[in-house]
Amino acid sequence: MATASAQTYSYARASALTDGGVLDLQTSGGTAHALADGAGTGLPDTVAHPRFFAGLLGEAEPAAAAILGLANVAAAHYYRRVPSYLRDPVVTCDAQRLRFESFSACCGVYARLDVLPEAIDGRYLARGTTNIDVNEPLRRALSKVRGADPLKLEVGPDEVEVTTFEGSVVERKVPLPGRWLRGFAEVQALSSGFEPRARLGRVEAKRFLQALPASGKSALWAVPAGRTLRLTSRAVPGAVCVPEPARLKELISLLRLGAELTVYGPSVAAGAAQVSSCWQLNLPDMRFTLTLSPEARRGFSGEGAVLAALAGEDVTEDAERVGALLDFQGRIDPDELAEQTDLDRDRIRAALSLLGTSGRVGFDPADAAFFHRELPYDAARALKDNPRLAAAYVLLDADAVQTAGAEARVISGEGSHLIRFASADAAAEPLSCTCAWWARYRGGRGPCKHILAARLRRRRTEEAEVE
Question: In the chain, which residues fall in CATH 3.10.150?
Fold first, then answer.
């Protein structure tokens, strides 16, 4: 069961689109690395109301529409009609771009807006991550913005404005379930395995998206066909899953402002089960991306994509070494980290996956690269006790795992389960487990606790032999 906590947003005042045409985004909490006269970084600090940027942002209408789309996703529940609390988006500034992120209330849709350097003309004041206030009056104002002139943008109040207030005058408290936090970890793990599958021009993208069914529970698959995509009801090699396409509606509203649609997904075999997919619309010097979970009723928090990487004895120490080198890079270079730490690429990737579980690392398919952020809440609290991984350690500590070559047997409850691996190598992929979880999902939602326990035992045995 997902744990729930209260997330309190405290703002100096409400965000607004002022009479002077300034998009004034107020910030709540987070980490800021102060910039000295625009160059170099100061010491990182936890700031109540960080100020990251002041200047101009691309074209007004696309920028306003994209931020509104991000806020719409944060307020939406796509699985069933239930009251939704407006959870405020996260923004990260790396002194080259602004990256806005949000999850839907049901955790089944992840939205991101990347404002690229070409769209930004102004002064960067700090690097870091914070929540931003996107309230109902601001949403209404954003929906009315028209025109191609640059949008004046301020992210965070200046020092004079902050000291004017005695404490926060805008405070909102909302429930923040652990499953919503875990979604940040799962999305980066899943999308890091995506490849670009198709690119559609403006006309083809509009035709394809507007032809998608407005409802329906069966998954569709999009197959590249010339300059467009055709729909089929069954997976074939090269296809991209379109799980419950009504969740792409925010893209449809932005089509008139976009130029190209790029679709990303994992490699699939004929007849494959539903999988996640990523849909990126290019706007003027910006990218708006929606990533869909395999089903609307399945939030990203339960996919288990990070578990295999976390089932390692040395991954925590590796993550600490790698994390010390992160400095809000917009693109993390694994080779550079490997050179700095003397760790191989597999251990670097596992360390980044662990850092992702606390929200410190995301992945951008367009750049094919990880990026650094620091979420303004304790995501690690919700993730450190992942039920399957915790259960695997219980089995391991109870000496319930026996390994022999490419097989392992795990005693669990009143029975036992046989696990088969591709080879006797400790890093080999699992082929099967006789438990009910594996029979139901076939690895589609990450490894079961028995496979995790067997992997841990195999790695411990290998390390003991090396020593």
Answer: 188-302
- pTM, whole model, 2 decimals? 0.85
The DSSP secondary-structure symbol of 366 reads T
Q: pLDDT by residue (tens digit) across 72-112?
A: 998 888 877 665 666 789 999 999 999 999 999 888 999 99
Asked if 254 contacts 69 with a C-beta cutoff of 8 angstroms, the reply is yes
State the residue for tokens 């919503």: 180
CATH topology assigned to domain 307-383 = Arc Repressor Mutant, subunit A (1.10.10)
Name the segment(s) of the chain with CATH classification 1.10.10.10.
307-383
Q: Please state, in angstroms and rounded to a whole number, the distance separating the CA atoms of residues 363 and 356.
A: 9
Tokens of 223: 């197959």
Q: If you write DSSP's letter for every residue of 221-290 in order, what string do you get?
A: EEEEETTEEEEESS--TT-EEE-SGGGGHHHHHHGGG-SEEEEEE----TTPPP--EEEEEEETTEEEEE
- The DSSP element (H or E) to which 465 belongs, if any, is helix 449-466
Q: How far is CA 255 from the centre of its chain?
A: 23
What class does CATH assign to 188-302? alpha beta
